[in-house]
Design a protein that fits this description.
Helices cover 0% and strands 32% of the residues. By secondary structure, the protein is mainly β. The strands form two sheets. A six-stranded antiparallel β-barrel has the order 1-2-7-6-3-8. Strands 4-5 form a two-stranded antiparallel ribbon.
């Protein structure tokens, strides 16, 4: 298979995203955050969708799971090699769940517990207050490898 790069060199491409909403969470400091969303199902947070994206949440139902993609807005860029949490050996950042990443994109699987207007309440919060949300996707366990 041959690929052609007729536009620009790949390292020159810039990707610009704007948030679709923001997280309201009790967590104000990075040190307060749980390691993973699935380890924090007893806490809830709110995703406030910006008005121009409100129609996009139509079809999300209470008591269903979703994937929230967000920006680690308070993390720093990372070296490409690190020692992941709970491990003893150095490995690449892309084989870890570290919040310190080249593009700072986070992903959490959450359970939507209440939907009211343009706000989505969810459990499984592992995001700081004010976290910008980039996208929401449905979670379907049947589409994930077992």
């Amino acid at each position: 298979m041959i690929f052609s790069n007729t536009c620009r060199r790949r390292e020159e491409i810039k990707i610009i995203m704007e948030p679709i909403g923001y997280i309201k969470s009790e967590f104000k400091q990075k040190q307060e955050l749980p390691r993973q969303s699935v380890l924090n199902t007893d806490k809830r947070a709110i995703l406030e969708i910006l008005p121009k994206y409100k129609e996009g949440i139509e079809g999300i139902k209470e008591n269903t799971y979703g994937i929230i993609l967000f920006h680690f807005h308070q993390s720093t860029s990372s070296p490409l090699k690190l020692i992941p949490h709970g491990k003893e050996e150095m490995s690449g950042v892309f084989s870890s769940r570290s919040p310190n990443r080249p593009n700072g994109i986070g992903m959490s699987i959450v359970k939507f517990t209440k939907i009211e207007g343009s706000t989505l309440e969810f459990e499984g919060v592992d995001m700081l207050d004010g976290t910008p949300v980039l996208d929401i996707k449905p979670y379907n366990p049947e589409l994930n490898p077992k």
